[in-house]
Amino acid sequence: MENQTQIFGIRAIIEAINSGETIDKVFLQKGLKGELFSELEVMLRQNSINSSYVPSEKLNRLTKGNHQGAVAQISPIAFYDMETLVLDVIESGKTPLFLLLDQLSDVRNFGAIIRTAECTGVNGIIIQKKGGAPVNGDTIKTSAGAVFKVPICKVDHIKDAVFYMQASGIKVIAATEKTNDTLYDVSFIEPCAIIMGSEGRGINPSIIKVADAKAKLPLLGEIESLNVSVACGAFLYEVVRQRLS
């Protein structure tokens, strides 16, 4: 599976943004100046497009063309509007089940989670626009194509998604070790959204504070944590177990 389509050249990227292309990330050359480059920087900020400044060597590795100091990666999927998706799921009569991923960074973990989400009936996955893993070729391959079947939404901040879920009558449960409750102590029968944190730091403490419930996996060995995609699978199948009982 090839990585997502790339666009290179400052003017080409500006035109792509103006035409509504779903841009996943833009790599900008460190130290580059100029009026057109500044215009691109402003557009990236205004449209909340993820970007990073890298050495020219990085851009040379990304593309063999004349990149002019900017390379954009186009997402292979179209992202859903979160509010519309939540409303559609509620109106469908299904019991909502959503995943909120707080800046998960590894594309293979992301793909594995999407695959499990598809198998367990997750209605949608919400990610943050900046700081998280992109949807690229590795994500698609690891998800076994599930990325084309599970709606994925991007929001400015995960906390915004938490508040919207709560306002829509959906209980938000944080998967964190910072609790005495295990996932077997929490009810997943009602509409719910599960927050999974990043590989390194877990869920942001400010997000844990606003969650309706917290739950952890019981760990009986000496290792203190599970891979996030494995942990997510355990949570999702506990939802399935409770809802099938």
Brief synopsis:
The chain is an alpha/beta fold and 245 residues long. It has helices at 10-18, 35-46, 56-62, 82-92, 107-119, 137-142, 158-167, 205-210, 228-244, and strands at 6-8, 23-29, 51-54, 70-74, 97-101, 124-128, 152-155, 171-175, 192-196, 213-215. The strands form two sheets. Strands 7-6-5-9-8-10 form a six-stranded parallel β-sheet, sandwiched between helices.
Overall pLDDT? 91
Number of beta strands: 10
CATH superfamily of the largest domain: SPOUT methyltransferase, trefoil knot domain
CATH fold category name of the largest domain: Alpha/beta knot
Spatial strand arrangement across the major sheet:
7-6-5-9-8-10
CATH class of the largest domain: Alpha Beta
Identify the overall geometry. elongated
Rg over CA atoms, rounded to whole Å, is: 19 Å
Q: How much strand? A: 15-25%
CATH architecture of the largest domain: 3-Layer(aba) Sandwich
Element-by-element helix/strand order: EHEHEHEHEHEHEHEEHEH
Largest sheet descriptor? 6 strands, parallel
How helix-rich are the residues, as a percent range? 25-40%
**Structural class, from helix and strand content?**
alpha/beta
* Count of discrete domains: 2
Helical run tally: 9
